[in-house]
Amino acid sequence: MGRRELEEGIHKDLAGEITYGDYLQLDKILQAQIPASKPPHHDEMLFIIQHQTSELWMKLMLHELEAAIGFLQQDRLDRCFKILSRVKHVQAQLFNQWAVLETLTPSEYLQFRDSLGHASGFQSYQFRKLEFLLGNKNKDYLSVFSHDQKAYGDLMRVLENPSLYEEFLLLLHRQGFDLPDEVIDRDWSVTRDGHPRVIDAFKIIYLDPQKYWDAYDMAEKLVDLEENFQLWRFRHVKTVERIIGYRMGTGGSSGVNFLRKGLEQRLFPELLDVRTEL
């Protein structure tokens, strides 16, 4: 068996220097898995880490999507492409990690489920912010965060401002596409249905991609984003169905039936509708 010697140049005296653990705050992160079951159930560690890592990936997605919105406001479509490509890979991580949670059997989960009380993924501030940034807005959902003024205020800010898709439509309007006032000057906190004139604008783009390449590329990246978001939601539904069947959710929802309704929601309606019109 080969042996790898410790190279002379490797730093060994790290007293007073920033270390790997210091930089990543591992003392905080690795101590943040605290089972609620008494005595701690073995499989609760999986459940905690699954959701903590999901929140970390969502934090990165929010970081990237807010940057993309800033570039759209500056008419910099080109700067969005790398960002959305990265987001697509993050979505793949979120999708694939459901497979790890699916190793949790119903009997194992029931050993510690009661310890969660009313804690539920529905209460995820970051997921709600992600939905709002993608245009799936519902002011009623803010009531869940009334106990947390910081989260509530941030969600209200995102709710009342244009989403990623709406910023893209505003950019197209500035570029000369004929978009109606009810699309570009409205109450951003309300989710709207598709509009024929927006579909017409995308028909122009899709029928001449060479002329409108940046807008065409952005549109396709948004289609990727929506498809991957819905695939993630579908995998969530199937994972919950597999583990708890049709029990009520810990947060008080109907569980699987409530989650399935999310699959009917559309984020960027005209980008799908235009395909029928071409």
How would you sum up this structure, described in words?
This protein has 14 helices and no strands. By secondary structure, it is mainly alpha-helical. Helix 3 packs parallel to helix 7 and helix 7 runs parallel beside helix 8. The longest helix has 32 residues. The radius of gyration is 22 Å and the shape is globular. The model has no long low-confidence stretch (mean pLDDT 95).
Describe this protein with a few key phrases.
mainly alpha, 58% helix
Q: What fraction, in percent, of the residue positions are helical?
A: 55-70%
Quote the average pLDDT.
95
Tell me, what's the shape? globular
Distance between the termini: 63 Å
How many runs of DSSP E, i.e. beta strands? 0
In short:
By secondary structure, the chain is mainly alpha-helical.
List the helices and strands and how they pair.
Blueprint: H1 20-24, H2 26-29, H3 44-73, H4 77-96, H5 98-101, H6 106-110, H7 125-133, H8 149-159, H9 164-174, H10 181-184, H11 196-207, H12 213-244, H13 256-261, H14 269-277
